[in-house]
Structure formats: structure tokens, C-alpha cells
Specification:
The chain is 35% helix and 28% strand. The protein is globular, with a radius of gyration of 20 Å. Strands 7, 8, 9, 10, 11, 12, 15, 16 and 18 form a 9-stranded mixed beta sheet that branches. A 7-stranded parallel beta sheet has the order 3-2-1-4-5-6-17, sandwiched between helices. It has 398 residues and is an alpha/beta fold. The N and C termini lie far apart (48 Å). The protein has 14 helices and 18 strands. The chain has a domain of 195 residues: Dihydrodipicolinate Reductase, domain 2, CATH 3.30.360.10. 48% of the residues are buried. Bound molecules: NADPH dihydro-nicotinamide-adenine-dinucleotide phosphate. The site of NADPH dihydro-nicotinamide-adenine-dinucleotide phosphate has 33 residues, from α1 and α13. NADPH dihydro-nicotinamide-adenine-dinucleotide phosphate binds next to α1 and α13.
Length: 398
């Protein structure tokens, strides 16, 4: 039985809090803290057991240290923004508390995300006897587990990996993002990188596309190749991979809006002066767009996210597809959130559960695929994200 401190009361924070609150035996006490405590209280009011709330600026290490020292949690679940990863890791080290997040560190002033900054904490965490689990959301997170599970149970050696993330949901707005708009737009406008023959190859954003028909009637969608952070750790930890790509579905309206916003400079991260004030265009755009946490009641349809792996088993080539389908409205009925936050928040809860139950607890900084996928995959089935495996599926990917 444990006490956890969740930092960040956005779309994902709401789901993690709901899911942890459902498991009283594992998460005995919960504290939810964020920049704006009113948002924590709003989430707390939706639960059927009391939790504590607090205000914290997670950019400020001493504020974090003060909060963690007062709360004395067993671990911190960081579902604030990627900008806060390092300050929260520093505060965990200073207070002797385990750490988990769902997205890798990204500096505020450079649209660049990579694991190097957090991997550099490996020795510090190891020496302190503390664990940091990186990227325990869906992608990264569940997709890392899917890959590790397929590699463990279906292959002697894996050669190609295609992660396919389809969101067949419709929220009815002409343009909105399903998670934090600033992070989402920085991610999708970045240069595409995929792994091929031992190195990352760069291509222009959104320049490679194909159509993909999801199983179970979810539909056929245009999917676009883009860079995603789990490619960095998966290609490192599965060196037999010759090619690894990430694909995401986007509707035509989303892409058209993004193109226009980019053309007029609204997705820029450099401050511009307006009426004597410094304004960062993408931050101003975030203020105009619908709050992702508000999309829940309006979003209909399903997500279908999975991994297609090819490789060798007993000297024969084969293909395995492992996926989860998640229904936006079912998520809303359960935790008052749409499926994007749900599919991120559930793996964050399960990752924390794995650590607190000792199934995964080991000092150091770890990506998900470095840990045994079996207990995690079992819990995915139990706690709302059931998955299906198809051996030698009928489709062929480009
Ligand atoms: P939101 O913007 O909805 O929520 C972020 C929350 O963090 C907000 O409550 C925000 O406060 C709070 N916050 C921001 N800055 C600070 C700060 N300095 N101090 C304290 N709190 C702060 O984002 P999401 O919930 O959509 O995403 C949360 C995280 O999950 C992100 O890191 C995102 O990249 C990650 N993610 C991971 C996915 C995966 O599959 N691995 C998928 C989707 C998201 P305020 O309300 O005041 O702005």
C-alpha cells in the first residue's frame, strides 16, 4: 500500500488520478498537484474517494522539494509537460522518491525531444537507489511494451517495426488537438526521422503517406510517417531492428489547418513583440484552441494503436500485429475523458503499479522495453486497454 504524488491536472492527469483512485489496495493515498489547484479540485470532486490537492510550480525545484518533503510520497507520477521532466527528476533525487513520466524531456526554447538529457541521470538514480521509469503512456509506453512482448513471445530476432497510431475519433471542431496543443503541434511539425540500416534518416514532415485499414471495422485512414520518441529507445534496445517507423493518422481538415497556421507563423516558438509585449505564437494559439480535457463529452469513435513486427522464428520469416482498440465514449463514461488521455493515463497507472508492487522496481533510469512486458500486458487487459495479437495479418505495409 502506497502514497503517490501526481503532478499535472490536465487531460492525462485526470485519467491517472481516476484510475489510481479505483485501486485502493495499491494506491492507498493520492495527492494531485498542479500549477492551478482549482483544476486538481475539479478532478478530485469527480472521484468516489477523497484525495488531497496542492498547488506547485513544477519548473521550480525548491517548490517541488518543499511539496514532496511535506507529502512524503513513495513515488511521483509526472503528467505535467515534458518541459518539467528534469526539474521533477532533480526534486525526486533530492527527496529520495521514485519517478515516472509519459513523455521525454523537451527544452522550452528548442523544438527538439530526445532521451539524452534523461538518460544522463542513470548513475544518479542508480546511486540513490531510486527508479525512474520513462515514457509510461501509450506511445511511448504501451507501444514499447507491445514491441517487447512480441519480440519475447513470437520471434528469435526482430527485423522491422511499424508503430501505427490511428485516431478514428471525431470531436466536431474544425481544428483541435487531442492532447496539449503546444506539445502536439511541435511534434507533428518536426522533421520526420525513421530508422533504416543502423541510422536515422530524415525526410520532410508529412511527406510519406499510405492508407491503413484497422481491424474490427474501425475504418480506413491515411497514415503519415513521422518521428516519435520511442523509436530512439526501441532501436537502441533492439539492435537487430533494420527498419523502424512510426505512423499516425491525420484527417485532411487537421492537416489543412496546420499548414495554414504554419504558413502564417502561428506555430512558431520564437517570441514576437506585440503592443510592447513578448508573445510566443504557439502559446497564444494554445490559448485559442479547445482545451483537450474538454473534448471528452464531444468525441465519438475509436482509436486503434498497435505494432507490426517482422522477423525470424525457427528460421522462418513471419509478421505479428498487436493492437488495442479504445472507444472514446466508453472512456468518457468511465473517467470523464476522451480516449487519447485515457490510453495515456492507464499505462501511467499500470507503470506506477508495476513499480510499487516490486515487479519492476530497480534503481536507475529505464525505458519500458528494458523491463519484463508480461505483468504489464496482463494489467492492460485488466484495467481498460485489452489487446489482440494477429499472426501473419493479411495487410502489407509500404
Ligand atoms: P495538458 O496540457 O492537458 O495538462 C498538463 C498539465 O500540467 C496542466 O494541468 C498544466 O497546468 C500542468 N502544468 C504545466 N506546467 C506546469 C508547471 N510548471 N507546474 C505545474 N503544473 C504544470 O496536457 P496532457 O494532459 O494532454 O499531457 C500531459 C503529459 O502527457 C504531457 O507531457 C504529454 O506530452 C504527455 N502525453 C503522453 C502521451 C503518450 O502516449 N506517451 C500521449 C499524450 C500526452 P495548467 O492547467 O495550469 O496549464
Amino acid at each position: 500500500m502506497s502514497k503517490i504524488l501526481i503532478i499535472g491536472a490536465g487531460g492525462v492527469g485526470g485519467v491517472v488520478t481516476h484510475k489510481c483512485a479505483q485501486l485502493v489496495d495499491v494506491f492507498e493515498e493520492i495527492v494531485l498537484a498542479s500549477r492551478n489547484e482549482a483544476k486538481c479540485k475539479k478532478i478530485a470532486a469527480q472521484l468516489n474517494r477523497p484525495i488531497e490537492t496542492a498547488q506547485v510550480d513544477a519548473d521550480n525545484v525548491s517548490e517541488l522539494v518543499e511539496l514532496i518533503s511535506r507529502v512524503k510520497p513513495d513515488m511521483v507520477i509526472n503528467v505535467a509537460l515534458p518541459y518539467q521532466d528534469l526539474t521533477i527528476m532533480d526534486a525526486c533525487l533530492e527527496t529520495g522518491v521514485h519517478y515516472l513520466d509519459t513523455a521525454n524531456y523537451e527544452p522550452l526554447d528548442t523544438a527538439k525531444f530526445e532521451y539524452s538529457w534523461q538518460w544522463a541521470y542513470q548513475q544518479k538514480f542508480e546511486k540513490a537507489g531510486l527508479m525512474a521509469l520513462l515514457g509510461s503512456g501509450f506511445d511511448p509506453g504501451a507501444t514499447n511494451m507491445f514491441t517487447a512482448y512480441i519480440a519475447k513471445h513470437y520471434f528469435d530476432e526482430i527485423h522491422t517495426l511499424d508503430i501505427i497510431d490511428v485516431n478514428g475519433g471525431d470531436h466536431g471542431y474544425p481544428f483541435a488537438t487531442n492532447f496539449n496543443p503546444e506539445i502536439n503541434i511541435r511534434e507533428v511539425t518536426a522533421e520526420c526521422r525513421h530508422w533504416e540500416d543502423g541510422q536515422f534518416v530524415e525526410t520532410p514532415a508529412m511527406s510519406t503517406q499510405q492508407t491503413f485499414t484497422c481491424p474490427e471495422g474501425v475504418g480506413t485512414y491515411n497514415i503519415y510517417r513521422m518521428y516519435h520518441e520511442e523509436l530512439e529507445s526501441l532501436t537502441k534496445h533492439f539492435p537487430s531492428l533494420k527498419k523502424a517507423q512510426f505512423w499516425m493518422s491525420f484527417g485532411d481538415a487537421y492537416l489543412k489547418h496546420l499548414e495554414v497556421l504554419g504558413n502564417v507563423g502561428m506555430t512558431g516558438i520564437e517570441p514576437v513583440e506585440y503592443n510592447g509585449q513578448q508573445i510566443v505564437p504557439i502559446q497564444f494559439l494554445k490559448a485559442l484552441l479547445p482545451d483537450p480535457a474538454s473534448l471528452g463529452p464531444r468525441t465519438k469513435g475509436k482509436t486503434c494503436i498497435g505494432c507490426v513486427v517482422t522477423g525470424i522464428k525457427d528460421g522462418k520469416e513471419k509478421t505479428v500485429y498487436l493492437y488495442n482498440i479504445c472507444d472514446h465514449q466508453q472512456c468518457y463514461a468511465e473517467v470523464q475523458s476522451q480516449a487519447i488521455s485515457y490510453t495515456t493515463g492507464v499505462p501511467a497507472m499500470i507503470g506506477a503499479k508495476m513499480m510499487l508492487e516490486g515487479k519492476w522496481m530497480k534503481p536507475g533510469v529505464w525505458n519500458m522495453e528494458q523491463l519484463d512486458p508480461d505483468p504489464f500486458m496482463e494489467d492492460m487487459n485488466k484495467y481498460g486497454l485489452p489487446w489482440v495479437v494477429i499472426e501473419d495479418p493479411e495487410f502489407e505495409l509500404a
